[in-house]
Design brief:
This protein is mostly helical and 50 residues long. It is 68% helix and 0% strand. The protein has helices at 2-6, 11-17, 23-34, 38-47. Helix 2 (11-17) packs across helix 3. The two termini are 16 Å apart. The model has no long low-confidence stretch (mean pLDDT 86).
Length: 50
């Protein structure tokens, strides 16, 4: 979650770095845990004031 909020690296690359084999696996796991897709989470993070 921190990696998505902090940078512009694609979710697939971040997922690969932490051991996921595909972008769809990253998206499914992320949505199962957070209730939103990595893209939705990143956009919401960008909208939050620092």
């Amino acid at each position: 979650m921190d990696r998505l909020a902090q940078g512009a690296r694609p979710a697939a690359r971040i997922g690969s770095e932490v051991g996921y084999a595909s972008e769809s696996a990253v998206t499914a796991a992320f949505k199962r845990v957070t209730g939103q897709t990595p893209r939705q989470y990143r956009r919401a993070s960008e909208a939050r004031p620092v």
